[in-house]
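Reviewers of the previous submission asked for a worked example of the structure-prediction workflow described in the proposal, so we include one complete record here. The input consisted solely of the amino acid sequence. No template or homolog information was supplied to the procedure at any stage.
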Amino acid sequence: MSQANHQTILANIARHIELTPAEQARFIQLLTPKTIKRKQFLLNAQQVARHVAFVTAGCLRAYTIDDNGFEHVLQFAPADWWITDMYSFISQHEGDLNIDAIEDTEVLLLSRQDQLQLFDDIPKFERFFRIITEKSMVSSRKRLIDNLSLTAQERYNTFCNYYPTLINTIPQKQIAAYIGVTPEFLSKMRAQASKKG
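From that input alone, the workflow returned the following structure tokens.
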């Protein structure tokens, strides 16, 4: 595991809690680096999410597939983001989400077992993961309300504000699946916006 990846995840944690050098070393010991090639899966629906992943490079997406075979993207995780199927990770029951790589991606994995051990050994980690879990819940709720109440253009604008680094780096069909429109409709919408702009 590279020193740069250590620094990235420790900087992410330092936004919420302060760790001693010994606590940092203990935490780093528990992480498993993994490379996920483009289109490879970190997690399939109906599997149990054994790990939470921190992205150090690349981008993952979490999505479901409906009965008609349409993908519905719930979350993207570019570098410096955490991702898992939260329900499955916490309950250790089978989940509903597929998580795969949009591009070659590097992650650091923390198992549920090691996370729980961390809570006993370094209780401030319980606070850290509570904060990111709460943020995830708030974000999911806002997303649900936005999908019910905003126009497609407003949902696209929200996406641009939430994921500014992804606007020009991920395929248009992924953005369309996130905001709930066809790629053709998104293309038309963007063309109209650039004419106005």
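The longest helix spans residues 124-149. We consider this example representative of the routine output the project will generate in years two and three.
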